[in-house]
């Protein structure tokens, strides 16, 4: 159940995959609706009410914190850990968090019609795989961006000198903004392929990805700051994905 709740949470946070700022008014409805639909799939009882109150209070505190802080990425990292703890405590203390029996019965009927999914056990494994996939798509991106912030690494050096770098792209430099966005897309694709390769035990694909990325950035790697940025980002991205894939493999088997 905790895996399902975390999947719902991370799915709701997909709205700001390409946004380093706090959650906006346009993103808020999507964020709340996804979580609301996730909770609506559960049986309504006392334990469910406790979970609902915990989610509402937690979201309220997170949104307030995001709007007041200068670094929303920290809030997102801490909030993911916080929600994990809250879900774990409530599920273990109440023991009454279950799927709606009517919905569960409908899912079982659908499973019988779909030959791809054989039983609820296989559906649980798919749920676990989705946990890792959602984590590497969005949450790991936040962690990597925060890592760059901590160690003061950026793809473009500041005008003040090579040692001082820009932590965020200037709003008037559209090319750099596009580079940041394309970099995130490349990172998402990179982690997705590595994740699938790890689960399939096809480790040779990782070497191919590294070679392809080095070839694409070959000319720009002459710049020391940019080379460090690419190297740190790539290694951090692959490391996080390897850890996530290993955790999911253990969880499933």
Summarize the structure in words.
Strands 1-2 form a two-stranded antiparallel ribbon. It has 253 residues and is mostly helical. The chain contains nine helices and two strands, in the order H-H-H-H-H-H-E-E-H-H-H. The protein folds into two domains: 113 residues, no CATH class; 121 residues, no CATH class. The longest helix has 32 residues. It is 73% helix and 3% strand.
Largest beta sheet, briefly? 2 strands, antiparallel
Trace the largest sheet across and list its strands: 1-2
Structural class: mainly alpha
Strand fraction: under 5%
Radius of gyration: 20 Å
- What is the count of DSSP helices, taking H or I runs of 4+ residues? 9
Kindly report the oligomeric state of this protein. Answer: single chain
Count of domain modules: 2
Number of strands: 2
Spans of at least 5 consecutive residues with low confidence: 159-175
Helix content range of the residues, please? over 70%
| Order of helix and strand elements from N to C terminus | HHHHHHEEHHH
Average pLDDT level: 79
Cα shape: globular
Give the N-terminus to C-terminus distance in angstroms.
Answer: 17 Å
